[in-house]
Write a structure and sequence with these properties.
The structure holds two protein chains of two kinds. Chain A is of the alpha/beta class. In chain A, 38% of the residues lie in helices and 17% in strands. In chain A, the strands form five sheets. A three-stranded antiparallel sheet of chain A has the order 7-8-9, with helices on both faces. Chain A has a two-stranded antiparallel ribbon with strand order 1-3. A two-stranded parallel ribbon of chain A has the order 2-5. In chain A, strand 10 and strand 11 (249-253) form a beta hairpin. The longest helix of chain A has 22 residues, at 130-151. Chain B has a four-stranded parallel sheet with strand order 1-3-5-6, with helices on one face. Chain B has a two-stranded parallel sheet with strand order 2-4. In chain B, 37% of the residues lie in helices and 22% in strands. Chain B is globular, with a radius of gyration of 12 Å. Chain B has helices at 13-20, 44-57, 70-82; strands spanning 2-5, 9-10, 31-35, 41-42, 62-66, 89-91. Chain B has one domain. Classes of the chains: A alpha/beta, B alpha/beta. The A-B interface holds A 113-114, 117-118, 121, 133-134, 137-138, 141-142, 145, 149, 214, 221-224, 226-227, 230 and B 7, 9, 11-13, 15, 40-46, 48, 51-52, 71, 75, 78-79, 82-84.
């Protein structure tokens, strides 16, 4: 049976794992009231994995019409269409007020990492200052590149802005942005194991190794292995937070030492 | 001198490989100029791959950088240090 979210009222970075049902017969979003970008990319990734073993899986949309409309505006209906799944979510509204700046989309179908970079830049430039904009875009290049190269499958991307209390017209440089990138590839541990360059004991150790500067699964290429480290360096330098998850292990960082366990 | 111009958004190794694909396999005796004046945002992987393609694999005498802002200059220096070719990376002072 696939592992999917079930009976959740909220699917967020804080609650997602606790709502995963390892014996789910369907993706049940009927009670959903709130979902953030992490919850949606997580749900989409879980569905992608589940469809490999259970084609034609049923997705139950939220009973609450506002929640259903929000999910559609986040790009979930378009994602289900791509997967060949039908559900009675409404169409995406042109006038979204949800803060969704980049709806859920496949990195490859979006035109690859360069198209994503342009889209993210254009959508965020009125919400965050230039330094944050550059750091976020740089990080997306690195993480999407890692996902496409090492996971062996496509990646799902979404970005959402939480607006400052000031409201009104952009630019609001106090706005916060959440960018989530997910894939259902082999995972960081298996990626290291495949080449044998490094030998982490498990997924948790694999995250720590991946965050070391110049740690890579690519043999005989001494400049590789900068992406995750420099993204972490940039995010933390700007008082942001980066969360890395692989398998059922995850690491949330406020500073590199905590993230790497050193 | 061989001139290569970066796109405005440059972040992937594939982009760097594409930019250098038409260069000769052996660049000994040549200097390659990387013009970053159109660059809006660049990522470490792109710069590392440029250094690798030009200085490590094709063994150019020098990779000269123009029009790069601080972040791009820093990432290029890191890449050249990591690949032990820093002495062949030349970064023009900002105008």
């Amino acid at each position: 049976m696939p592992t999917l979210p079930a009976s959740a009222r909220a699917l967020t970075i804080a609650t997602f794992d606790s709502h995963l049902d390892p014996l789910a017969a369907r993706c049940d979003l009927e009670n959903l009231q709130f979902i953030d970008a992490y919850g949606l990319v997580g749900t989409a990734s879980a569905l992608r994995a589940a469809l490999d073993e259970t084609p034609g899986l049923r997705v139950v949309p939220p009973a609450n019409t506002n929640s259903a409309a929000h999910l559609a505006n986040m790009g979930f209906r378009a994602f289900l269409d791509e997967c060949g799944l039908s559900t009675n979510l409404p169409a995406r509204s042109a006038a979204s007020v949800s803060g969704v700046v980049v709806p859920l989309r496949s990195a490859q179908l979006a035109g690859g990492d360069q198209a994503l970079s342009h889209l993210l830049w254009a959508q965020l430039r009125d919400h965050v200052d230039a330094q944050v904009l550059e750091a976020v875009t740089e990080g997306v290049w690195e993480i999407v590149g890692n996902a496409l190269e090492h996971s062996g499958v496509d990646a799902q991307v979404m970005a959402q802005v939480y607006r400052s209390t000031a409201g009104g017209q952009p630019p609001h440089h106090d706005d916060r942005v959440q960018v989530v990138i997910g894939d259902v590839g082999r995972g960081i541990h298996a990626s290291f194991k495949a080449t044998g360059v490094r030998d982490p004991a498990d997924e948790r150790e694999a995250i720590h190794v991946a965050l070391e500067y110049l740690a890579t699964s690519v043999p005989d290429d001494p400049g590789r292995g900068q992406g995750l480290f420099t993204t972490m360096e940039q995010v933390i330098g700007l008082q942001g937070r980066m969360t890395i998850r692989t398998g059922m292990r995850w690491s949330r960082s406020t500073e590199p030492a905590e993230a790497t366990g050193r | 001198m061989i001139r290569v111009e970066t796109p405005d958004h440059a972040g992937s190794r594939d982009q760097a490989r594409a930019l250098t694909a038409t260069l000769p396999a052996d660049l000994q005796g040549e200097t390659v100029l990387l013009d970053c004046s159109e660059l809006v945002v660049g990522a470490p992987s792109f710069f590392d791959e440029m250094v690798k393609q030009v200085l490590t694999l094709r063994r150019a005498d020098a990779l000269e950088i123009s029009g790069a802002r601080d972040r791009a200059r820093d990432l290029l220096e890191r890449a050249a240090n990591n690949r032990s070719v820093r002495e062949r990376l030349r970064i023009a002072a900002p105008a």
